[in-house]
Amino acid sequence: MNEPASVHGAKSIHRQATFLHKVGNAISESQAFAEAVRLIVSAYEPVFTTGIGKAGLIARKVAATLTSTGTPSHFLHPVDGMHGDIGAIPYGALLLAFSNSGKTQELLEICYSACKYRECRIIAVTSMADCSLSSMASVIIPYGIVEENDIPTVSTTAMLAIGDALALAVMEQRGKTLEDIAENHPGGTIGKRLGTCADHMRPMSDVMWCRDYRTIGEMIEMFKDGKRWPGLIVLVDDWPDKNGISEITGVVSQADIIRYLAKHGTSGLLDEICSAEPDTFTTIRYDQPITEAVKIMREKKISEIPVVGDDNKPVGLLDITDLIGIFPELKDAPT
After folding, report:
1. Are residues 117 and 244 in the same domain?
2. How many domains does the chain have?
3. 247, 209 in Cβ contact below 8 A?
4. Which H/E stretch holds residue 121?
């Protein structure tokens, strides 16, 4: 009787994980990997990747990862390359070639032609250091012989891991950070996670604010027409600049008001709203990474942060309810 599909699938994943562990150990001591990173960092851009079949699909993905992490790259299909597309490769360019056997004919032909007609340098990612492809390569990164019953699974996983590792190592060598490459990811969750506070804040037109000399009673009057009580009210001084913008002096929450009135009774309605504000409050600049604001929210267990521009003038508000869908780690913070 055949084993359950889930057991069979788990074995496949464990087999790949075990092999990747061996590859990782080998890479950690690999001079070839370090040299490959050096070549990519110093290469004429763009870098090209190539491969045939399943290895070609991995090469496409690695080109995309290199590009998104700051190294412009293109995939060159070996067959198309032999029929004119090799003309896209500049002289002296770098070619990253993927092949498990290292002897696939179409790949060997494009690599030979790239060396002969474009004076390319080749980084070969293959299972064996001693193969036909290695004779043309400047650097060989062998990941070892794989047992996979002729179905590319473990080998393609190894190629992908090495390709991704090269991209990230190059990114690190160039001193790039996630914020540096945010412009390459304007869309999707990645793009949103790599934005600035200005990209995520509510503008001041959507933020409840109040002059800090107003009384608590006057502030409460602001909500008599059924306005929703916000999580946080931004307090500003009475010295607006030429654009009518005042400096932020504090914040006050609904809970702060309730605690204050519970202590002072109805007479507290006549006190200035600043009397109820906490001793300290947190702000963040509009140009700071949104990840920094998320870190502050988690560490201080707060759900709103006023965003300020130059001269401590408020420009917006970050609210946890707007961020929690992008940063699920905020579920631990108060809402």
Report:
1. no
2. 2
3. no
4. strand 121-126
